[in-house]
Design a protein that fits this description.
The protein is an alpha+beta fold. It folds into two domains: 112 residues, Carboxypeptidase-like, regulatory domain (Immunoglobulin-like), CATH 2.60.40; 113 residues, no CATH class. The chain has seven helices and eight strands. The strands form two sheets. A four-stranded mixed sheet has the order 4-1-7-8, with no helix packed on it. A four-stranded antiparallel sheet has the order 3-2-5-6. A hairpin with a 2-residue loop joins strand 2 and strand 3. The longest helix has 32 residues. The radius of gyration is 23 Å and the shape is flat.
Protein backbone atom coordinates (compact mmCIF):
# COMPACT_ATOMS: atom_id res chain seq x y z
CA UNK A 1 0.00 0.00 0.00
CA UNK A 2 2.75 2.43 1.02
CA UNK A 3 4.73 1.50 -2.10
CA UNK A 4 1.69 2.17 -4.25
CA UNK A 5 1.14 5.60 -2.70
CA UNK A 6 4.83 6.42 -3.06
CA UNK A 7 4.75 5.41 -6.74
CA UNK A 8 1.70 7.61 -7.44
CA UNK A 9 3.26 10.58 -5.63
CA UNK A 10 6.45 10.13 -7.66
CA UNK A 11 4.49 10.20 -10.90
CA UNK A 12 2.66 13.34 -9.80
CA UNK A 13 5.92 15.10 -8.92
CA UNK A 14 7.41 14.20 -12.30
CA UNK A 15 4.29 15.34 -14.12
CA UNK A 16 4.22 18.66 -12.27
CA UNK A 17 7.91 19.25 -12.88
CA UNK A 18 7.43 19.03 -16.64
CA UNK A 19 6.47 22.43 -17.94
CA UNK A 20 4.21 22.17 -20.95
CA UNK A 21 5.17 24.10 -24.06
CA UNK A 22 2.77 27.00 -24.62
CA UNK A 23 3.65 27.51 -28.30
CA UNK A 24 3.32 24.88 -31.00
CA UNK A 25 4.53 25.68 -34.53
CA UNK A 26 3.12 23.39 -37.20
CA UNK A 27 4.91 23.95 -40.48
CA UNK A 28 5.06 22.55 -43.99
CA UNK A 29 7.79 23.35 -46.50
CA UNK A 30 6.65 21.87 -49.80
CA UNK A 31 9.58 20.27 -51.63
CA UNK A 32 11.76 19.84 -48.55
CA UNK A 33 13.21 16.34 -48.34
CA UNK A 34 16.24 16.76 -46.15
CA UNK A 35 17.57 19.42 -43.80
CA UNK A 36 17.38 20.79 -40.27
CA UNK A 37 14.79 23.28 -39.04
CA UNK A 38 15.30 25.53 -36.03
CA UNK A 39 12.88 27.53 -33.92
CA UNK A 40 14.71 30.54 -32.49
CA UNK A 41 14.09 33.70 -30.49
CA UNK A 42 16.06 36.57 -28.98
CA UNK A 43 17.11 36.25 -25.36
CA UNK A 44 18.64 39.52 -24.21
CA UNK A 45 20.93 40.25 -27.18
CA UNK A 46 21.50 36.64 -28.23
CA UNK A 47 19.60 34.59 -30.80
CA UNK A 48 19.00 31.20 -29.19
CA UNK A 49 17.57 27.93 -30.49
CA UNK A 50 14.56 26.73 -28.48
CA UNK A 51 13.78 23.67 -30.60
CA UNK A 52 15.13 21.90 -33.68
CA UNK A 53 14.39 18.88 -35.85
CA UNK A 54 16.14 16.94 -38.60
CA UNK A 55 13.95 16.48 -41.65
CA UNK A 56 14.23 13.24 -43.62
CA UNK A 57 11.58 12.79 -46.28
CA UNK A 58 8.69 14.53 -44.52
CA UNK A 59 8.05 18.16 -45.43
CA UNK A 60 5.67 18.69 -42.49
CA UNK A 61 6.99 19.06 -38.96
CA UNK A 62 6.26 20.47 -35.51
CA UNK A 63 8.39 22.60 -33.19
CA UNK A 64 7.58 23.83 -29.70
CA UNK A 65 8.60 26.46 -27.17
CA UNK A 66 7.63 28.00 -23.86
CA UNK A 67 6.29 31.52 -24.16
CA UNK A 68 5.23 33.90 -21.38
CA UNK A 69 3.89 36.72 -23.54
CA UNK A 70 3.66 37.37 -27.30
CA UNK A 71 7.04 37.78 -28.93
CA UNK A 72 8.99 37.46 -32.17
CA UNK A 73 10.21 34.03 -33.27
CA UNK A 74 12.31 32.83 -36.19
CA UNK A 75 11.97 29.64 -38.21
CA UNK A 76 15.31 28.80 -39.81
CA UNK A 77 15.98 26.14 -42.43
CA UNK A 78 19.45 24.72 -43.01
CA UNK A 79 19.53 22.47 -46.06
CA UNK A 80 23.21 22.97 -46.87
CA UNK A 81 22.50 25.61 -49.52
CA UNK A 82 23.93 29.11 -49.56
CA UNK A 83 20.50 30.71 -49.45
CA UNK A 84 19.21 32.34 -46.29
CA UNK A 85 15.97 30.71 -45.20
CA UNK A 86 14.52 32.58 -42.23
CA UNK A 87 10.83 33.21 -41.58
CA UNK A 88 10.08 35.86 -38.97
CA UNK A 89 6.75 35.77 -37.16
CA UNK A 90 4.98 37.06 -34.06
CA UNK A 91 3.66 34.27 -31.86
CA UNK A 92 1.42 33.91 -28.85
CA UNK A 93 0.37 30.91 -26.78
CA UNK A 94 -1.36 28.28 -28.88
CA UNK A 95 -0.76 27.01 -32.40
CA UNK A 96 0.94 28.88 -35.24
CA UNK A 97 0.67 27.33 -38.70
CA UNK A 98 3.27 28.10 -41.37
CA UNK A 99 3.01 26.89 -44.97
CA UNK A 100 5.64 27.67 -47.58
CA UNK A 101 7.74 26.17 -50.37
CA UNK A 102 11.39 25.21 -50.61
CA UNK A 103 11.70 27.29 -53.79
CA UNK A 104 10.76 30.54 -52.02
CA UNK A 105 10.87 29.84 -48.30
CA UNK A 106 10.44 33.43 -47.14
CA UNK A 107 8.32 34.99 -49.89
CA UNK A 108 5.83 32.10 -50.14
CA UNK A 109 5.32 31.87 -46.38
CA UNK A 110 1.69 31.95 -45.25
CA UNK A 111 1.42 32.35 -41.48
CA UNK A 112 -1.71 31.83 -39.44
CA UNK A 113 -1.70 32.10 -35.68
CA UNK A 114 -1.70 35.03 -33.31
CA UNK A 115 -3.52 38.33 -33.70
CA UNK A 116 -0.13 39.96 -33.13
CA UNK A 117 1.08 38.31 -36.34
CA UNK A 118 -1.74 39.97 -38.27
CA UNK A 119 -0.68 43.37 -36.90
CA UNK A 120 2.99 42.65 -37.60
CA UNK A 121 2.19 41.59 -41.18
CA UNK A 122 0.31 44.83 -41.79
CA UNK A 123 3.36 46.81 -40.67
CA UNK A 124 5.75 44.69 -42.75
CA UNK A 125 3.67 45.20 -45.89
CA UNK A 126 3.88 49.00 -45.72
CA UNK A 127 7.53 49.08 -44.67
CA UNK A 128 8.39 46.74 -47.55
CA UNK A 129 7.00 49.32 -49.99
CA UNK A 130 9.07 52.04 -48.35
CA UNK A 131 12.21 49.88 -48.46
CA UNK A 132 11.65 49.14 -52.15
CA UNK A 133 11.55 52.88 -52.87
CA UNK A 134 14.79 53.31 -50.90
CA UNK A 135 16.44 50.69 -53.11
CA UNK A 136 15.31 52.63 -56.17
CA UNK A 137 16.83 55.78 -54.69
CA UNK A 138 20.16 54.01 -54.15
CA UNK A 139 20.15 52.96 -57.81
CA UNK A 140 19.27 56.50 -58.93
CA UNK A 141 22.03 57.90 -56.71
CA UNK A 142 24.61 55.57 -58.26
CA UNK A 143 23.57 56.61 -61.77
CA UNK A 144 23.65 60.31 -60.84
CA UNK A 145 27.16 59.92 -59.40
CA UNK A 146 28.34 58.27 -62.62
CA UNK A 147 27.05 61.17 -64.68
CA UNK A 148 28.19 63.77 -62.09
CA UNK A 149 24.66 65.17 -61.94
CA UNK A 150 24.88 67.38 -58.85
CA UNK A 151 21.29 68.63 -59.05
CA UNK A 152 19.98 65.08 -59.27
CA UNK A 153 22.14 64.03 -56.31
CA UNK A 154 20.77 66.86 -54.17
CA UNK A 155 17.20 65.93 -55.11
CA UNK A 156 17.84 62.27 -54.24
CA UNK A 157 19.41 63.24 -50.90
CA UNK A 158 16.33 65.29 -49.95
CA UNK A 159 14.00 62.47 -50.91
CA UNK A 160 16.12 59.95 -48.97
CA UNK A 161 16.00 62.15 -45.85
CA UNK A 162 12.24 62.57 -46.21
CA UNK A 163 11.86 58.82 -46.69
CA UNK A 164 13.65 58.14 -43.40
CA UNK A 165 11.44 60.66 -41.61
CA UNK A 166 8.31 59.11 -43.14
CA UNK A 167 9.37 55.67 -41.95
CA UNK A 168 9.94 56.93 -38.40
CA UNK A 169 6.63 58.81 -38.29
CA UNK A 170 4.74 55.89 -39.81
CA UNK A 171 6.20 53.54 -37.19
CA UNK A 172 5.30 55.91 -34.35
CA UNK A 173 1.73 56.33 -35.62
CA UNK A 174 1.38 52.62 -36.25
CA UNK A 175 2.50 51.82 -32.70
CA UNK A 176 0.10 54.39 -31.25
CA UNK A 177 -2.80 53.06 -33.32
CA UNK A 178 -1.99 49.54 -32.10
CA UNK A 179 -1.23 50.36 -28.47
CA UNK A 180 -3.16 47.24 -27.39
CA UNK A 181 -0.76 44.95 -29.26
CA UNK A 182 2.64 43.71 -28.13
CA UNK A 183 3.87 44.62 -31.60
CA UNK A 184 3.85 48.31 -30.58
CA UNK A 185 6.66 48.21 -27.97
CA UNK A 186 8.58 45.75 -30.17
CA UNK A 187 8.60 48.24 -33.06
CA UNK A 188 9.70 51.03 -30.74
CA UNK A 189 12.67 48.91 -29.64
CA UNK A 190 13.58 47.34 -32.98
CA UNK A 191 12.76 49.99 -35.57
CA UNK A 192 12.99 53.44 -33.94
CA UNK A 193 15.17 52.86 -30.86
CA UNK A 194 17.30 55.87 -31.82
CA UNK A 195 14.35 58.19 -32.36
CA UNK A 196 13.72 61.29 -30.27
CA UNK A 197 12.94 60.26 -26.69
CA UNK A 198 9.59 62.06 -26.82
CA UNK A 199 8.36 59.62 -29.49
CA UNK A 200 9.40 56.58 -27.46
CA UNK A 201 7.85 58.12 -24.37
CA UNK A 202 4.59 58.79 -26.19
CA UNK A 203 4.36 55.16 -27.32
CA UNK A 204 5.26 53.88 -23.86
CA UNK A 205 2.64 56.01 -22.15
CA UNK A 206 -0.04 54.96 -24.64
CA UNK A 207 0.38 51.21 -24.10
CA UNK A 208 -2.45 49.34 -22.43
CA UNK A 209 -1.71 47.78 -18.99
CA UNK A 210 -1.60 44.28 -20.53
CA UNK A 211 0.95 45.30 -23.14
CA UNK A 212 2.99 47.24 -20.57
CA UNK A 213 3.31 44.02 -18.56
CA UNK A 214 4.51 42.02 -21.59
CA UNK A 215 8.11 41.15 -22.44
CA UNK A 216 8.53 44.02 -24.89
CA UNK A 217 6.47 46.42 -22.79
CA UNK A 218 8.82 45.95 -19.84
CA UNK A 219 11.86 46.15 -22.11
CA UNK A 220 10.72 49.46 -23.63
CA UNK A 221 10.09 51.01 -20.22
CA UNK A 222 13.52 49.85 -19.03
CA UNK A 223 15.18 51.18 -22.18
CA UNK A 224 13.60 54.64 -21.78
CA UNK A 225 14.69 54.79 -18.12
CA UNK A 226 18.27 53.88 -19.10
CA UNK A 227 18.34 56.71 -21.66
CA UNK A 228 17.21 59.22 -19.03
CA UNK A 229 19.78 57.98 -16.52
CA UNK A 230 22.61 58.34 -19.03
CA UNK A 231 21.62 61.82 -20.18
Amino acid sequence: MKKGIFFILTLLIIACSKKENDLIVKATIVGLKKGTVYLKKMEDTLLITVDSLQIVGNSSFELQSNIESPELFFLDLDNKSNDKHRITFFADKGVTVINTTLKNVVFDAKIKGSKQQDVFKEYQTMISKMNNRNLDLIKEQFEAQKSSDTNKLNTIKKETDNSIKRKYLYTVNFALNNNDSEVAPYLALAEIYNANLKYLDTINNALTPKVKASKYGKALDKYIKSIRENN
